[in-house]
Amino acid sequence: MSKGKKFGMYLFLIIFSLLSIFPLYYMACAATNMSVDVSRGRLIPGTYLIENFKTLIANQDLFRALWNSFRNSAVLTLLCLLICSLAGYGFEIYHDKAKDIVFTILLTAMMVPFAAIMIPMFRMFSKLKMVNTMAAFMLPSISTPFMIMMFRQASRSFPKDIIEAARVDGLSEVGIFFRMFVPTMKSTYSAALIITFMNAWNNYMWPKIILQTNDSITMPMLVSNLLGGYTVDYGMLMLGVFICTIPTAIIFFFFQKSFTEGITGAVK
Amino acid sequence: MNFKKVLACVLAGTMVFSMGAVMTAGAASEEDNKLTVWTWDPNFNIYAINKAAEIYAQDHEGFTVEVTEIQSDDIESKITTAVNAGDLSTLPDIFLMQDNSFQKYTTFYPDVFTDLTESGIDFSQFSEAKVAYSTLEGVNYGVPFDNGAVVNCVRTDLLEQAGFTVDDFTDITWSDYMEKAKVVLEKTGLPLLTAQAGSPDMIMMMLQSCGASLFNEDGTGNIAGNEVLKQCVNNYAQMVADGTLVEVTDWDQYISSLNSSTVVSTFNGCWIMASIQAAEDQSGKWAITNMPRLDDVENASNYSNNGGSSWAICSNCQHVDLAVDFLNSTFAGSTALYDDVISKGALATWAPAGESDAYNVPVDFYGGDTVYAKIVDFATKTPSNATGAFYYDARDAVGVALSNITQTGADVDAELEAAQETLDFSMGV
Predict the structure, then answer these.
(1) C-beta atoms of A224 and B71 within 8 A
(2) pLDDT at residue B32 above 70?
(3) Of A264, A115, A138, A239, the residue nearest A197 (C-alpha)
């Protein structure tokens, strides 16, 4: 590649990197400035971070929201990974025509928008006296067609011969799954973990409907509360958004390496 | 010995049982004296309801409210979901609702609301326009709360540069206002107004200032051929063309224009004052007056309303008498409450509150003017208009028309005709 081409490519990449990173920089900057400075468009870090934090915890139960969001997302992610990987593995390894039909029906369910099932679901949980419970928050997304499909795709690249060999050696079906499939599919699990955790953390619509007390508030609900008043404290709002972003960013960076491999269904 | 042991066990068991019973009875009475409330904004509505509970508890020992912070849109979605699911038990005893949504919800979901007409609350003490929002076919469904009276906030220092004072912008007509706006632009280089592009807020305020609306009395849409609306749209479009009204992309930029001295004035619901006052370095440079009135329109006034909300008691409430008495004794009967919540910028629409000393305190930020008393006075002079169940549909349709007119120079009549068609479609006409 010629020097000029290389320079052009780097310039292009630098400009796009700056453009991509600017909203994050602005968010972090705004979190350290007074509301009035944010609305005046100040783009350099300020000294108002502690005051913004104090106002935030005085106005909202930040730690409870963080704990609720973390607890709900972590438990949901673990259960979702277990159930969907079992289902995906089952659909592929114990494959037959009937299961294909069930799988097609499952995929069709992906087409139904959430708004269409929201009210029947609320009705169901309300009849079961489960409104305001953690289970009601988790159950609708504990098993998703997308995750099952992702694990099924990944199972396709899992060598069938190994399964046969394990069976000959006397390993049970459950043993094969947990001792051979799960360790091999680390990258798929990482990708699934990132997607499920982020979806659970950012979920707003369903918790807003099903969770009805201040005690069950989650981070997206808290951020929404910061926007609700006649007067918006932009410094406090941006700090709330910043804090809300941190856990998903950490999870992403931590599992980033495996993410690309997992999403393409690669097996090491 | 054995007998003694058995007796001891029986007595201990009885004591434990009695304690349990007492505790249950205590819990039951606590529940009987507690109301659940849904509302939003910790610094405004939540503060007010908690303060009201504190005042009410002084005469009603043990009374408490359990407030859940939920945004106004979310309260509306939860009501819709609960009604469609056929389970109102998930709703609270009291909830706050935006005035502009009240008609829609009382029309479509009347079963959610408690009829307050004969409840003993004296609605005549509230401003007529405010009560009209929560009244459907003569039935009162809400207790009015905060004031959305329109104030014209002007920068006196910038007006001075243009050779004007706040009095030059008091009790004036739109034609006069638009001419003065040109002078201000010429002398200061700044627009007189900024507005969020595509938002018809200003049009709605202009309409209400003469009691006009996007609906006829029978509830049908009144957009196409509405001469008052046409005049409002023309005034707005003319100011945009003159450069005396600059449209900004979103609400944040609108607030930014007020705080960064890039605009000379704004008119909006009085709640906008809290955002203006955030720029403490501008203290003493702002003044409050009324908005301009439309030219040659019957019932035109210099007063209007934008925003505000009212309390409703849910039909599912298990303690309706307590809820009514609570609201009647506080939001419809306590000057102490309104004297306190004024510190948060929550102004009363309950007339007796306006006579209190707290409303006549000079405010330094507005050059020592008694702005609170002024606003209560504005509120009492505001004409009422029909909002209707399809208020937001009509508003959105007019917003689209307004964008097309100001940005592409589309024909006003044709755009209003199209907006009428959109509204009719939404209404199923």
Answers:
(1) yes
(2) yes
(3) A138
